[in-house]
Amino acid sequence: MSTLDEYKKQWGQSFCESTPYDQLTFQKVIKKRVNQHTRSSMQYFWASFAFQILIYALCGHMVIRYWFVMPILLLSLTGILLYIPFTVMLLKKFKRFAVVTIVSNETSSTYEYLLEKQRLLENFFRFKKQYEFFLIPLISAIGVFLVFAIYVPGGVQAFPFGAVITYLITLLSCYLAIRAENYKSFVRPLAQIKEILREYETGASIQE
């Protein structure tokens, strides 16, 4: 009888020792799936950051080259100022998105990790849609005006119809590009994270 009790005790100890390993493996699987689904979001971050650096470089170049032409100078500075809040928010949100991790081996920690990933991505996506709603029309107008002012003799005043057509084409192109970008980098990853959360909740309810 004592031998049987001893075996039970040893089995219980080995089971307890294996539990953290199983939980750790589960967390690795969760993180791997989340990283796979959010890879496109991180790709958006680097592409967007590079694009904004290009905008700053172009506007800065025009500020230096055309500092004596007041309309070009003011519009170039405006273009820089319009993008600064977006760049700050991009760096702030995606830094937190990249460094968030599972803080312990507890099941609740894994669930909170998923929720935090979802929350950060949703918050930036909401900000992005709201900010781009007025950013894109303004920056497109600035871009069209600058292109006509620099490369078209007479500028917008000489060819108002051409400027309007160019502006509308620019808006349409931006709309289509942003729509595809939003789906790839935000809508689809968020849907996949929510699917993982549903699977997680279903598994937890079954275990209970």
From TrEMBL:
Record keywords, A-Z: Membrane, Transmembrane, Transmembrane helix
Highest taxon above the source species: Bacteria
Transmembrane region(s): 44-64, 70-91, 133-152, 158-178
Name of this chain's protein: Uncharacterized protein
Organism: Xanthocytophaga flava
Lineage: Bacteria, Pseudomonadati, Bacteroidota, Cytophagia, Cytophagales
